[in-house]
Each structure stands twice: as C-alpha cells, then as structure tokens.
Amino acid sequence: MWIKLLSIFLKRLIRQGSLVVVYPDGRSIQYGDGSTPSATMRFHAHSLPRKLLINPELTLGEAYMDGTLTVDQDDLYGLIELLVINLKRQSDAWHLRWQANLRQLHRRLAQFNPAGRAQRNVAHHYDLSGTLYDLFLDPDRQYSCAYFREPGDTLETAQRNKKSLIASKLLLAPEQRVLDIGCGWGGLGLHLARDYGARVTGVTLSQEQHRIAEERARAEGLGDQARFRLQDYRDIDGTFDRIVSVGMFEHVGVPHYKEFFATLRDRLKDDGVALLHTIGRADGPGSTNPWITKYIFPGGYSPALSEILAVVEQSGLYVTDVEVWRLHYAETLKEWRNRFEASLDRVRSIYDERFCRMWRFYLVASEVAFRHDGLVVFQIQLAKKQDAVPLTRDYLASRDRLGEPATRDGENISDHPAWNAN
User: Fold this and answer.
1) Which stretches make up the DUF7884 domain (predicted)?
2) 290 to each of 6, 50, 100, 287, 337, how far by Cα in Å?
C-alpha cells in the first residue's frame, strides 16, 4: 500500500526531469518527463516508503545518513536539485504544505533560545573538531557567505572581499570600539583590528571558537586590540562606535528579535553604525527544515526581510542601507562542498561514515536551497541617527584603501556636510 501511495505522490510531483526509484521489492519505476535533471535512488528498507510519505523532509536526510537510501553514482546533488525544482513548481503537495504550516505554528517554541539553551545549540555545531572546519573552510575560517566580485574569484579572495565590504559599510576609523556579536574563530575581528586599527570586542558562545580566537590574537600580537569573550550578547555592557554581527542572527530565534535589536540600540553610541549580515528567505516567513533543526542547527531560523524590519521599526534604529546577496552563498557552499568531498578520507579518520554522509547532505542541501529555493543573504546597515552615514552609497566604492576615510572626487567625505559619515 505504501509503495502505491508514494508512487502516486511522485507521479504528481515530478513533472520536470527524471526520477527513477528502485523499491525494496526490486521494482523500478521512472517518474517525470525523462529530461534533465535526472537521478536514481534505491530503497533498502521496506519501511522507507511509509516514512517518506509521513515526514519526507526529515526522512530523506536520515535515510541517506543511515544508508537505507542510496543514490546511483552517489549523485546526491542531482537528486536534491531534482526534488527541489519540482517542489517549487508544484502547488498540489497539500500534505507538505500542511506540515510546513504546522511547524510554523510551533516555531516560537522551537526557537525559544534563552542563554543556556542557546549555548547548547551553539556547542552542537561549532564545538566539533577544529580539523573538520580546516578541511573545507578558507584559512581564516570564515564560516559565512563570501562575496564574489569577479567570476574567477577564489574562495579566499571572496572571503577577503566580504570582510573589506563589511569594513566599508561600518565606515571604520582607527581606535573606534567595535563589538562583534558572534565572532566565530576571530577572523573578522582580527581583520578589523589589524587592517583598520579598530579596538574589537568579540563574543561567542562556542568554547572552541573562543579558544582559537584568543590564540590567534596572541599569535598576531593583537591581544590588546582584539579581545574575545565567551559570553552571551545579552550580557554585554558598555557602548561601542560600531557593532557587527555576521552569521549569528540565524541562531537568535523569532521570540528574541526584540531583545536582539534592543541590545544593538543600547550598546550602540548615538552616532554609531551597526551592520547585520544574515541568511534570509526571499519568499516570506516560514519554518526551518526539520532535518536541519535536528542534526545541524537546533533552534535556528533564517528570517524573511519583513520579519526583521518589523522589529527594527519598533527598536529606535534607522535602516540606512539594505543589500541582498543572491547567489553568493550558493557559490560559497559549492566551494565548501568540493573541498569537503576532496577531504572525505580525512573526515573519516575523525568521524564515522554516518557523520560524513550527514555533513555532505547538509552542504549539498544548503547549496541547492540557495540556488533554487529562495534563500539569500541580507546585509542591513543600522544607525540611531539619519546622518550617521553618508547620504549616498558612493563611499562604498571610494573606500578602496584600507584604513583611510572615504573620498568623493578626491575630497574627504568626512569634511563635506552633505556626506558627513559621523
């Protein structure tokens, strides 16, 4: 019965491309129009058709991890791309919509992240072996979207582009106090301290990230200029000239958005500038994929722009600039996926095969989501005063020399009242 029901569902779902399913009883059925993309998956457990119908988003990843579902040529990317493309085109997958709506109703509970729970969620992902991250990230361990200015940019170049653009949007000057919320392994904070003369305080809930960030600061002789704390952002005291948060807002949770932006407002000086860099969704509010929640980012959620701005509007902060990065993260994840797959033997020496398949599913599914399923990156610049930043975006193009103030036609912007940056 379950095979028959799943087959009916797949016939309705797969309209573009070709999906071949080899069922546990040996039957092979093709779905779709026979075009590309195409993939063949094999079921090795009789319970799989039932589980896929009941909870497909969770079961697909679990079955791949456990080996009860395999893909010919191990073309996991082709399978997920095929499924996502067809899911985006179909409107009659009613039980999938029902499940998504149910998750959205319960998302405030799923994303309730007080300090203790937030730290456990962070440890689940970021306190893994440091060697794992060395195998697929760039040497600076930038674990967020890179910025590909040119088609030929390497991952390392694109990550430097990202850090430089963030510094430009912060309009940094030497000796300014910068708060880095969710500082990771310290790469951005060290960049701002080393190349712009900022005095950086970075906070993270990951013990591993904190340890490595501190070690890096000492090794570079920046221990007095870049300090890193194992601390919740809600416990920070004092005020700062600049605040930046990259790849951390996804862990805040909808119930805590007011708290987050109230913290930004209270910690930011009256003439200060803040920059929020976060994954978001282009198709409106939703809910987190259950497999991602269970295995990768517990308590995590990527918001719609409407969800962010609705809270900012009530926070006493001005939105001074918004930029949407579309396919940059897809390209970043492609680089990470290729490096991870090239290092699978090394990963197997650290973790078991199930972990390797889990991590591969995570990287592949994430890349496909940014290419085909409406995930983007938002960079939102915020300030307390309307004139805290220049009146045009020209300064972003003109701040091309590290550590120097922006200029417009050879004139220092900070000396021009119409482009006053402070």
Assistant:
1) 17-81
2) 20, 17, 9, 9, 21
Q: b vs e for 122-157, b when ≥16 Cβ sit within 10 Å of the residue's Cβ?
A: beebbbbeeebbebbbbebbbbbbbbbeeeebebeb
Residues 86 and 120 in one domain: no
Task: Give me 339's structure tokens.
Answer: 């490096």
Q: Establish whether the linkage from the previous residue to 390 is cis, with ω within 30° of 0.
A: no
- Report CA-CA distances (Å) from 250 to 122, 160, 279, 314: 11, 22, 7, 20
Q: The pTM is what?
A: 0.89
Instruction: Residue 267: name the closest of 239, 225, 241, 234 by CA.
Output: 239
Asked if residue 408 is part of any domain, the answer here is: no
**CA–CA separation, 335 vs 192, rounded Å?**
25
Which pLDDT tens digit goes with each residue over 335-355?
999 999 999 999 999 999 999
**Count of beta carbons in the 10 Å neighbourhood of residue 79:** 23
Alpha helices in 313-379 (DSSP H): 328-342, 344-348, 353-372
- The span from the CA of 393 to the CA of 112, in Å, is 37
Instruction: Say yes or no to pLDDT of 365 above 90.
Output: yes
Residue 407 pairs with which residues in a beta bridge? 412
pLDDT > 80? residue 113? no
Are 242 and 383 in a shared domain? yes
Which are the contacts of 99, defined by CB distance < 8 A and separation ≥ 6?
55, 57
Residue 185 and residue 24: Cα distance in Å, rounded? Answer: 46
pLDDT tens digit sequence for 66-92: 999 999 999 999 999 999 999 987 655
Averaged pLDDT of the chain: 89
- Give the closest residue to 382 by CA, choosing from 304, 303, 313, 332: 313
Q: Are 148 and 329 in contact (CB under 8 A)?
A: no
- Render pLDDT for 284-313 as a digit per residue (tens, 0 to 9): 998 899 999 999 998 899 999 999 999 999
Q: What is the arithmetic mean of pLDDT over 276-282?
A: 97
Question: Considering its fold, how many domains does the chain have in total?
Answer: 2
pLDDT score at 411? 38
Instruction: Provide the β-strand partners of residue 179.
Output: 201, 243
Domain, as residue range, for 284 = 115-400
d(CA 192, CA 188): 6
Are 173 and 266 within one domain?
yes
Residue with tokens 């392994």: 185
